[in-house]
Predict the structure.
Amino acid sequence: MDFIYFDHNATTPIEPFVLEAMMPFLQGQYGNASSRHDLGIHARQAIEQAREQVASLVHVRPAQVIFTSGGTEANNLLIKGAAEWLKPSQVVISAIEHPCVVKPAQFLARRGWQVRQLAVSELGVVDTEDLEQALSTPTGIVSVMMANNETGCLQPVGVIAQKARAAKALMHSDAVQALGKIEIDFEALQLHAMTISAHKIYGPKGAGALIVDRRIELFPLLSGGGHENGLRSGTENVPAIVGFGVAAELAASRLANLKPRLSELRDKFESALVAMGAIRFGSAVDRLCNTSYFAFDGVDGETLVIELDKLGFGLASGAACSSAYTEPSATLLAMGVAPEIARGAVRFSLGVHSTKEHINVFLTALKSVVNRLKSLAAMTA
């Protein structure tokens, strides 16, 4: 059997239908969308069609979609761009945010802002009582992710948004991991801004978007020709944006059937995990249908991932963005997990093409590798 991929929370393969839509704009239709001739006009029309497709997936108007190079740029644009128009006060983030939210918040700290990290429960969910306490201090920006990229735990973003608005704070959510896996209604959630990305929904890398309430003011990160309504200068990546649009349309068509199918596969997998004595993280709350985060006591997570890779299986020891570091997962530490257990964490994330056969083959390999690593640990103890 070919390499079996269980790391869809890191990235997803481009669907053939998406790639097919992109190819003309990598070849014959190579126009700059700002040009006035036929090739440029065709490129502009393709971008605007993609804007409509992305807008439809999250239930907003096309004018609210600002295309970026990905989720990192979109998060930076919101946090830094909004701060330029606000008097320095407090920026509130959760203790389990992605680094591309944490680091812009730390950037604001060097500009006179206070950074407040919200506690999360041992189940992996933001503590809304801690939020209320945080909001007793004047707050300019609140940013809490919609679904954690490691545990898959869904956060009470709608409730947080209500409290943030009541405190007259701008509310943002990084929805990169949630997009395409749950229904997202930007207006219903009462958000001011939201970040999404193409490569998590079987689209290309290098395309993301900031969804904005057009009444808020943002200062652009990049100065230039004033593309994307003046918020993101730079010649548009037309092929990637086109791919994002098609991927968004495809994701919308899959939403109804995706959750029950992947939930069934994940539950089958986790039943076997429990029988093997695994420790599961975030499994007692609502979470993404495709995600399982687990550890085996006494087994190093990175070692387990490497051994499984040798056998043809792709997983992650924590989040892909932090795979170069050997420190325990900050998310698990925030949940109160002991560092020695957190170092064993492995993330398993299913995709639309995952099957029962894939899981059965993987479970056989997993049992063998875990038993071998435990035996080696016992011999060297």
The chain has a mean pLDDT of 95. Residues 16-250 form a domain with the Aspartate Aminotransferase; domain 2 fold (CATH 3.40.640.10). The chain has two domains: 4-11+256-380, 16-250.
